[in-house]
Design a protein that fits this description.
Blueprint (H helix, E strand, L loop, with lengths): L10 H39 L9 H22 L6 E7 L9 E5 L3 E2 L5 E5 L6 H5 L8 E10 L2 E9 L16 H9 L15 H7 L6 E6 L5 H15 L1 H7 L1 E5 L2 H8 L10 E5 L15 H8 L2 H12 L8 E5 L2 E5 L1 H13 L4 H37 L5 H12 L5 H12 L2 H10 L5 H9 L2 H10 L4 H6 L13 H11 L4 H28 L9 H9 L7 H7 L7 E4 L7 H9 L6 E5 L13 H5 L7 E6 L1 E2 L4 H14 L7 E2 L8 E4 L5 H14 L14 E5 L4 H7 L4 E2 L3 H4 L3 E5 L8 E7 L1 H5 L5 H9 L2 E9 L12
Helix pairs in contact: 1-2, 5-6, 6-7, 10-17, 10-19, 11-12, 12-14, 16-19, 19-23, 20-21, 25-30
The structure holds adenosine-5'-triphosphate (ATP).
């Protein structure tokens, strides 16, 4: 146990020295806040002044000041997020022979005083690391670590750990550092928001946070081990340490549902980062926000990699050759292209190995050419036939015969004539319809809708892709059904295969380039006519650029979100065990460098399409090249609740070890046999209990607790009926209310002070993953757990009293 400084002195002296220490720290903290205010003022002033100010007349200077303004905006955003708990730690290095050791204050952001001396060390900086890694057994060069607890800007408490006294029993500490501070933090009631834990990050979490940027890091840990908070702090750390790469490319955090992402959204800005995109798998296809889910058996089929083959088959199936060749009537003529020529055109287009919509251009050009030639030949025949007739009858003058012989050696159409003929044909609706039928321009949505609604096509192509009839039959759905989360990887796959015909975009660019040339010409004239010396450094292209400037640049996050082909600098996947193989395929396309943090718990896999092991999903992309870090300590669930959950885990995943709980507080969990109709009373009673034993915030402020009722699919509608006062569903508003009713799936990744689990037998019966669902439900409570059953308590919950 870490020896607190206070233990070594008598109570009165302790109180006095504590007050004195608080006064000293208050002075320091006040200085830090004053500095923060000054920095904010400075950044605000720079921002108000705008890009042109301070740059003098020279254009380059103005550009530089524009960059400085962007930097000021970033800095301001960063400084805005650190008001709460600005400074939370202090480390004193051991004195050496050459004098006292260094002292550093650790904060959410780095600050320097007027003389550029460090006032606060950013928590992500190397110099801050001992704050997180020192243990009594391995203190490194630290003599003391101090946690500072603030309420607003006031220092209200200090917690010390002194490392250079003897007699510290490492074994008692279970690897936990800063225990007093940690437990105080954990005992705070849940506010419906995920808090950042930057002041109490633990050693094992610190290793995750500061692990190198490259490669795939898997963070495997049981419920409540801080995987999510560690992953988010890792995002902040990586952005700080690899700013150059990551500010440009951004970090993508993929989480299980939008509510959950909202929770973590409240953490990241608090850490002062802005270049992070948060998305669910349902949002990875730009322009779509899929939230609906498929039935588990359907999700399993859609999540299988054979779906990639099915989508590819569907695309190929739309590149057709008519068995009897192409016939199309235009301008009173029936033009034809034989099947062999059509086939050659298709093979030439496919050989380009480009997306379908881009290959289409080649195919269309080839067929238009064939049609144009046929038309020319037909015209030719119309003119030639009477002449041939005349020639046969010997009625053709010699000069005309000579002309005809000459023309026979010339091609029928020269280049310009051919281009114009193709152009005319392309504008004929009948020609276009005929070509569209052979090689249509496709959208991902259109392709999948057609496929899902056509049983014959599903049968034919499904068999090609290796799906059996029971599987492809599950894919049928009406065209009006909403897109589901499992459809998104398939849409993404289709988008890759289809690509976009960018001719319109290229035409726009050509026009823009021409316009720009004009701008440059004009700018050159301006430079020549003004002859102003300070413009010497400006090139005409600079001036043209300035002229075309239209609004502030998009942030990395905004640009990344809009671009399906954006390559992120790093991707973090939370609750990663839930991703299907197809979802992994989509995620991996977003990060060609394979720099990922994969966070999850195989024992909590609830989705039938999810992972049974990490290797199953990752080896395909980084065979044997991913590293795993385990988190073993549970910071959420008290020991008594964890004992009950451990029995469930032993039954459903005997090879998984439950995490070791830090907390040993709270009442024992209970089981109550009662009808669901009486549930409202229990909810009321629980709400009063959590209000009564809410310990208040560190500074004494009372914080409200939260309660969740997690019900089996069968009991869920009955619970909604019985407890009408409670909110329902994992929506942001519902989670902000005192009591919320959730399904097991909605409860994933969330936590509450008190949890009532209804119908455990029903949850267990929820398909193959029922046991995992029950394990997840039982581990959502930070203080109280009640299990409600209808006299059918499953055997594996017999530890409940
Ligand atoms: N070092 C820490 N200091 C204080 N609180 C912590 C620490 N680590 C984790 N916690 C708290 O423990 C709780 C669980 O953390 P988190 O939700 O990140 O766990 P998880 O491993 O993602 O859980 P699950 O798999 O059950 O979703 C949170 O309330 C978090 O704030």
């Amino acid at each position: 146990m870490g020896l607190r400084q206070a233990d070594a002195v008598n109570p009165e002296r302790e109180e006095k020295s504590r007050e004195a220490a608080i006064r000293t720290e208050q002075e320091y903290v006040s200085r830090a806040y004053a500095r923060l205010d000054a920095e904010r003022d400075r950044a605000e002033a720079a921002l108000r002044a705008g890009p042109a100010a301070g740059g003098g007349g020279a254009f380059q200077a103005r550009v530089e000041s524009g960059v400085a303004t962007d930097e000021a905006a970033r800095r301001l955003a960063r400084l805005g997020g650190v008001e709460h708990g600005l400074c939370f730690g202090r480390i004193d290095h051991r004195a050496g022979v050459d004098g006292p050791g260094d002292t550093f204050y650790i904060g959410r952001v780095g600050l320097r005083d007027e003389d550029r001396e460090p006032l606060l060390i950013d928590w992500r900086a190397t110099a801050a690391r001992p704050f997180y890694t020192a243990t009594p057994g391995a203190p490194g060069t630290l003599a003391r670590r101090r946690h500072l607890h603030l309420r607003d800007r006031e220092v209200v408490r200090l917690d010390d750990e002194v490392f250079d006294l003897e007699g510290l029993a490492e074994s008692e500490r279970r690897g936990i550092v800063g225990e007093a501070a940690l437990l105080a933090t954990l005992r705070r009631a849940r506010t419906g928001r995920m808090s950042d834990v930057v002041a109490t990050i633990q050693e094992e979490q610190d290793q995750v946070i500061r692990s190198g940027l490259h490669g795939v890091l898997v963070v495997q840990g049981g419920p409540g081990t801080g995987k999510t908070v560690a992953a988010l702090h890792r995002a902040a750390y990586l952005l700080y340490t690899h700013r150059d790469v990551l500010e440009r490319r951004g970090v993508l955090v993929v989480g299980p549902n939008t509510t959950f992402l909202r929770y973590i959204e409240q953490v990241l800005p608090g850490l002062g980062e802005t270049d992070v995109v948060l998305a669910t798998v349902g949002e990875l296809h730009p322009g779509l926000k899929a939230t609906a889910s498929d039935r588990p058996d359907v999700a399993v089929v859609k999540g299988d990699l054979r779906m990639a083959d099915l989508v590819a088959e569907a695309v190929r199936d739309r590149q057709r050759v008519p068995a009897d060749g192409l016939r199309v009537t235009t301008d009173g003529l029936t033009l034809t292209v034989d099947a062999e020529t059509c086939e050659r055109a298709r093979d030439r287009a496919r050989a380009l190995r480009l997306p379908h919509n881009v290959q289409r251009r080649r195919f269309v050009h080839d067929l238009l050419e064939a049609l144009a030639v046929d038309r020319a030949e037909q015209y030719d025949r119309i003119v030639d036939e009477p002449l041939e007739e005349m020639a046969k009858n010997g009625g053709l003058p010699a000069w005309l015969q000579e002309l005809i012989d000459e023309a026979a050696d010339e091609p029928l159409l020269d280049e310009t004539e051919l281009r114009m003929a193709k152009e005319t044909l392309w504008h004929d609706p009948d020609v276009r319809a005929a070509l569209d039928a052979l090689w249509p321009e496709l959208t991902p949505e259109g392709l999948l809708t057609d496929l899902y609604t056509d049983p014959d096509e599903l049968a034919r192509l499904g068999t090609h892709a290796g799906l059996d009839p029971a599987e492809w039959a599950l894919l049928r759905r009406p065209s009006y059904a909403p897109w589901t989360v499992s459809d998104v990887p398939l849409l993404d796959e289709a988008a890759d295969l289809l690509g976009a015909d960018d001719s319109a975009e290229r035409a726009r660019k050509r026009a823009a380039d021409a316009e720009r040339e004009q701008e440059e010409l004009y700018a050159r004239e301006v430079i020549e006519s003004t002859g102003v010396a300070e413009l010497d450094m400006v090139t005409a292209s600079d001036l043209a650029d300035r002229h075309q400037y239209d609004g502030p640049p998009l942030t990395t996050a905004q640009r990344a979100l809009a671009d399906r082909e954006w390559a992120y600098g790093h991707v973090i996947v939370d609750e990663a065990q839930e991703l299907s193989a197809m979802a992994w395929r989509t995620v991996m396309k977003r990060v060609p460098t394979r720099s990922l943090t994969v966070v999850g718990d195989i024992a909590q896999t609830g989705s039938a399409a999810g992972a049974a092991s990490w290797g199953q999903m990752l080896d395909r992309y980084v065979p044997g090249r991913w590293r795993e870090q385990r988190l073993l300590v549970n910071y959420r669930t008290p020991a008594a609740i964890m004992r009950v959950a451990a029995d469930v885990l032993a039954a459903v995943a005997p090879d998984q070890v439950p995490p070791e709980p830090v907390r040993d507080d709270g009442p024992p969990p209970t089981a109550v046999a009662m009808p669901v109709t009486d549930l409202a009373y229990l909810v009321q009673a629980e709400l009063s209990r959590i209000a009564a034993d809410s310990p208040g915030d560190l500074g004494g402020t009372f914080t409200e607790g939260r309660l969740a009722v997690i019900a089996s699919a069968t009991a869920h509608p009955l619970v909604l009926d019985a407890v009408q006062d409670a909110a329902a569903g994992a929506t942001p508003e519902a989670l902000d209310s005192p009591a919320v009713i959730l399904t097991t799936e909605e409860a994933k990744g969330l936590e509450f002070d008190s949890v009532i689990v209804v119908d455990p037998a029903g949850i267990l019966a929820q398909g193959v993953k029922g046991g995992h669902d029950l394990y997840v439900s039982l581990t959502r409570a930070t203080r109280r757990l009640t299990v409600v059953h209808d006299n059918d308590l499953p055997e594996i919950l017999s530890a409940l009293v």
